[in-house]
Amino acid sequence: MIKKYFADYIFISQAASQPFIENGELIADEISGKILSVLKSNKKNYPSVERSGDFRTIIIPGFINSHTHTDLTIKPDDKTPEVFSKWVMSLIEKRKSFSPDKQNRLRIKAFKEFVKSGTTLIGDIIPLDSFYNINDSLLKTKLVPKVKGFIELRGLDPLRAPAILNEFRAFHKKYNNILRKSKNYFSLGISPHSIYSVSEELFKEIIKENSKIRLKVAIHVSEHLAETLFISGNGGDIAVNLLPALNLTKFSKPLKIFSSPISYLDYLKILNQNTSIIHANEINDEDIEIIKKSGANIIHCPRSNAFFNSKKLPLKKILDKGITVSLGTDSLYSNKTLSILDELRYAKKIHSDISSKDLFAMATINGAKILSFPNVTGTLEPNSYGDFTVFKIDKNIKVNEGNIYDNILSFKKTDIIKIVINGNVVYNKLN
């Protein structure tokens, strides 16, 4: 079924030949889920719930949350530790009571918050033993975004590396066959968790296997100073507190010393254009050069970094090098909300030297590129999927190409009228 959406303004994409249309009309096919056209409407008084005498409307691409953990949708409280090792142990304690049903309900809770705040695609990292059961009826509700599901692998014991990889290989083969019919909604990635939870042997097994199956890779890297201290053999919170608490004391000293986590990953040869470095706020100029040369990208989670009082990402330096950066919220357990709008506003606050235009790209087209959905979502160009949000704006505000990005960053969740994913309305506030 063909459906038309009218708005006072339609923002297509920064990369489009005509990025912005006033009094626009977007036509989408609900069956294919694709956008057929976006053009200027010839109707002066078109009937539509997108138009009202009380406010103006604008349609923009859906936001992309490049990094989260939906199975950790639990709010921190005053007792939640902010020291990383203690935070991890508190999380492990909470997870002990998570049944499969509770994990799915936490995911649905996250999905609802994502969609109702304008997010239409997420990068979700989940351990293999608690990965999505896509046959569960809970996951077939309307309020579900597109998902790049990263299978998380851990294992510091080098002797366990072949067994862990075999388990992953069997899981991937089975799951990949199930997902063939859902490739426009869900796709797989792989996430060797971090340098302090994955052995060199397991990293190498993953690299070898991925040379065959070619999944997108995402790794938590340089989130905390303790990672640099660990890999350089200088102790720190991870080596002194976290690993002993996990009964992994014998792995608290690395077998090989490196100046930084990034230099270690460079040695492993895992950094390339298909690798996402999650966080990267504790990096130096040498690390930035390595990332640039490798073609890897960065997923920035500013509010989660602030939760742990971590160093601020040197975003200006990174963007000046031409490195692609996108935005993520991380899990709710190290944040206040799962809203990319909130993440954008906080990013603008701490990165005052970065334009609203560049920040918006991080929340849309950059996220699509990083999660391997380029020209499919993150844009409203014809033949891309119909993933977009309709916002209301004050009728006295005149939007133009010069102020549109600042206006978008001022939007709130309460300004959302409608969410469309794959050409189908999944949320309508006016109904």
Write the layout of secondary structure elements.
Elements (H helix, E strand, L loop, with lengths): L1 E10 L8 E10 L5 E6 L14 E7 L1 E6 L15 H12 L4 H17 L2 E9 L18 E8 L7 H18 L7 E7 L7 H14 L2 E6 L3 H7 L5 H9 L15 H8 L6 E5 L5 H10 L2 E4 L1 H6 L7 H6 L4 E3 L12 H11 L5 H7 L2 H6 L17 E7 L9 H7 L5 E6 L2 E5 L3
Helix pairs in contact: 1-6, 3-4
Short description:
The chain is of the alpha/beta class and 431 residues long.
What do you see in this structure?
Helices cover 32% and strands 23% of the residues. Helix 1 runs parallel beside helix 6 and helix 3 runs parallel beside helix 4. An eight-stranded parallel sheet has the order 5-6-7-8-9-10-11-12. It folds into two domains: 112 residues, Roll (Urease, subunit C, domain 1), CATH 2.30.40; 308 residues, Metal-dependent hydrolases (TIM Barrel, Alpha-Beta Barrel). It contains 14 helices and 15 strands. The radius of gyration is 22 Å and the shape is globular. The chain is of the alpha/beta class and 431 residues long. Keywords: Hydrolase. GO terms for molecular function: hydrolase activity, acting on carbon-nitrogen (but not peptide) bonds. This is Amidohydrolase-related domain-containing protein. It comes from Candidatus Acidulodesulfobacterium ferriphilum. Pfam families: Amidohydro_1.
